[in-house]
Amino acid sequence: MAAEDFTPGLNFIRTIIEADIKAAKNGGRVHTRFPPEPNGYLHIGHAKSICLNFGLAAEYRGLCNLRFDDTNPGKEDVEYVDSIMADVRWLGFDWQDRLYYASDYFEQLYQFALHLIRTGKAYVCALTADQMREYRGTLTDPGKNSPCRDRSPEESLDLFQRMRAGEFPDGAYVLRARIDMASPNLNMRDPVLYRIRRESHHRTGDRWCIYPMYDYTHPISDALEGITHSICTLEFEDHRPFYDWVLDQLPVPCHPQQIEFARLNLSYTVMSKRKLLELVDKAYVRGWDDPRLPTIAGLRRRGYTPEAIRYFAELVGVAKRESMVDMALLEHCLREDLNRRARRVMAVLRPLKVVITNYPEHQVEELAAENNPEDPGMGTRKLPFSREIYIEQDDFREDPPKKFFRLSPGKEIRLKHAYYIRCDQVVKDTSGNISELRCSYDPDSRGGGTQDGRKVLGTSHWVSAAHAVDAEVRLYDKLLSVPDPADEKEGKDFKEYLNPVSLEIVKGCKLEPGLAAASPGDRFQFLRQGYFCVDSDSSPEQLVFNRAVTLRDSWAKIEKARQNK
RNA sequence: UGGGGUGUGGCCAAGCGGUAAGGCAUCGGCCUUUGGAGCCGAGAUUCGUAGGUUCGAAUCCUACCGCCCCAGCCA
Q1: Which of residues 187-206 of A touch strand B (CB under 7 A)?
Q2: What percent of chain A has pLDDT over 70?
Q3: Statement: the CB of A115 is under 7 Å from strand B
Q4: Of A263, A283, A300, which residue sits at a domain end?
Q5: Is the pLDDT of residue A8 over 90?
C-alpha cells in the first residue's frame, strides 16, 4: 500500500481524544506538545512521538508545540536544540510561533514554588542525598519523615529565597513537596522540586543557581501552554499521580491529561541516548549522523525520506505494550516510498570488463532508458553504449549453479535497455582470476528485445567503459549482529554485538555518466541493487554514494537457502 | 515481597459479549526488458494458563503464571 493512501486506524489515544471531543472536554480543543530534552540527537523513537503529537494535532485541527525540557543545564547544549529543530522540521512538522523552553518558565515556576511553601505543600529540606535515600524507604518499606518536614512555611520561604540568592553551596538544601512518605508510589514520597546547582544554563546563563526538577516543571509547563493531552512514554506512568498533584495544588489555567504509550524499540539497533552517545563519543561510528545510526540525522544521511519515516510511524501503531519492531518494516517503508519516486540508474559496483567482439570498434550508440517504470511521467534518458562495457562481477559465473539466470560461458543475457550478449570466452590473468569476458551481441536485439520471441531470463545492468564515471559507494548493514542484545547472555555489553561489517566501502565503482551531476541528498535506485543517496562527503571530483536499503532479492534468498542445507 | 503497567500467528497490531481486521516477515503460484515492482493464494479451531458466568467469551468474573517500569538533588 502506498504511504499516502494509508488510512490510520483507531488507537487508544485517538479513542481517548475522540471521546474528549465528543464530551466537549477542553471545549473540544486538542493541543499537544513534543517536549525533548536538548541533551542528544533525536532518533527514530522520537520520530514516533513527533509524528504522534504533531499528527494528532493536525488530525483534530489542533496545535502542537515544540518545547525544550531544559531543566538540567549540566547535560544540555545549544548544539542539541539546533539539531532537534532541524530534525523536526525535516520530518515535515511546523510548530509555527509556538517554540517554548521550560527555562522560559523559571520565574513562574519559582513563584508557584513560593505558593506551595505558603500553603504548606512544600518545605526546604537539609538532608543530604544519601540521607534522603535512606529516609525514602524501599519498594516494600515505607519511608520516614525528614526532620525538616515540619519546618514552618515562614522559615522555608526564607531559606528558599536565600537558595535562589545563592547563599548556600550546591546540595546544601532542596525544596521538597510535602505529600506522603508512606506512599506505595515512591514518586509521592516528598519528591524534590528544586535543587541548588551552580551551572551555566545554555539559555539563562548564570541567572539561576537553583533549577526545578522535571516532575515539577512538566505539569506546570503543560498547563501554562494550555496543553490538553500530554503524551509521554510508559516509564512516566508512575509519575502521573504527582503530575496531577502539582496541578491540583496550584492556580494554573488548566489541568492537562497525561497519557502514556510504549516507546519504540527496533531490532538490530540501539535506541537509548546513553548508548548512542557512547557510540558517537568513543568513535564506534563517525558522528551523530552516521548512516548506521537510527538517529534522524543518520537516517537522513543514509537516504531515508521524511515520508518513509512518517509512514513507518503510522504502521507501527501506538499501544501500551512494550514491543520490538522488526527493522524490515522500516526498510519496507523506504522501499515503498522510493519505488515510486526514485529515478532508476545503472551503477556497477564491482566491475567486470566485457568486450563485445562483433560490435564496431569506435561506434557509440545512444539508447533510450526509462527513468522509472512506475511512473512514465518521469521520462527517459539516453545511455551511451559501446564495444567495451562493465557488468557486475556477481552477474557472471564460470560454473553456474542451478537457477542461475545470469551470464556464464555460452549463455545469453539481456543488457537492460541495450542488447542481448552471449559469452564466448573467459579471459584470465596469470593468477587465474577472471580479467575480462569476450562476448558477441545480437544486433536485432537493440533496445533489449527481439521479434522472434526468444526467452532471455537474465537481465543485467551495465555501463559503457569509456563513458562511466567513478564513484565510491558505502554499503551499510545492520548496526548490531543480533536483533536484541537484551536477549543474549547476561553481563555482555551491547558493544560486543556491534556488526563488524556494518560498513563496507567499495571504491572504483562505475556509474552511468549522468550521475556526474548528482548532488548530496539526491536519491536513486541503482537498478537491481537498491536505493542509494549521494553522501554529504560527495563532490564532483569524488562522488560518494550511500546505500540506504537493498532491493528485495529473491536470488539472494535462493542462495541463502542453498547454503543452509 | 509494595506500587504501577502489560500478555492476540515469527514481528507489530485491530478487536470493547455474537463466533479472530490489517501490515511486515515467511512459503507457494502468476507476471515481468530490474530474480525489483505488481497480482493471486497459504497459514492463529484460537487470543498467557486454569476455572467460572452466559444460548454464546479474546472480550465479563476469579485465581495463577510470565514480562516491563519505579528506591536520581536525571528526563
Answers
A1: 187, 191-192, 195-197
A2: 98
A3: no
A4: A263
A5: no
Whether pTM > 0.90 for this model: the answer is yes
Q: Would you say residue A303 lies in a domain?
A: yes
Q: How many other CB atoms are there within 10 angstroms of residue A103's CB atom?
A: 23
- Same structural domain, A528 and A499: yes
Q: How many Å does it take to go from CA A202 to C1' B69?
A: 31
Integer distance in angstroms from CA A9 to C1' B16? Answer: 15
Indicate yes or no: strand B within 7 A of the C-beta of A213.
Answer: yes
CA of A68: nearest nucleotide by C1' is B75
Answer for the pair A172, A196: CB distance below 8 angstroms, yes or no: yes
- Nucleic acid strand B within 7 Å of A321 CB: yes
Question: Per the structure, how many domains does chain A have?
Answer: 3
Q: Which amino acid is at A31?
A: H
Please state the ipTM of this predicted complex. Answer: 0.97
> Residue A27 has what DSSP assignment?
G
- 361-380 on A, CB < 7 Å from strand B: 372-374
**CATH number of the domain enclosing A508:** 2.40.240.10
Query: Domain span at residue A309?
Result: 273-343+471-564
What is the pairing mode between strands A63-68 and A31-34? parallel
How does the average pLDDT of chain A come out, rounded? Answer: 96
In this structure, is the CB of residue A58 within 7 Å of any atom belonging to strand B?
no
A552 touches strand B (CB under 7 A): yes
- The closest of A431, A440, A43, A62 to A266, measured between CA atoms, is A43
Instruction: List the grid coordinates of A476.
Output: 551499510
Task: List the grid coordinates of A322.
Answer: 512494550
Identify, with chain letter, the residue nearest to nucleotide B73 (CA–C1').
A195
Q: Which residue minimizes Cα–C1' distance to B21?
A: A9
Chain B bases having any atom below 7 Å from a protein CB: 1-8, 10-16, 21-27, 33-38, 67-75
pLDDT tens readout for residues A135-193 = 999 999 999 999 999 999 999 999 999 999 999 999 999 999 999 999 999 999 999 99
Is the residue at A393 inside a domain?
yes
Mean pLDDT confidence for A452-474 = 95
d(CA A234, CA A27): 27
A438 & A385 share domain: yes
User: Which residues 448-507 of A interface with strand B at a CB distance below 7 A?
Assistant: 448-449, 458-460
Cα A534 from Cα A537, distance rounded (Å): 8
Render pLDDT for A233-273 as a digit per residue (tens, 0 to 9).
999 999 999 999 999 999 999 999 999 999 999 999 999 99
- Rounded CA-CA distance A243/A262 in Å is 19
Domain identity same for A359 and A506: no
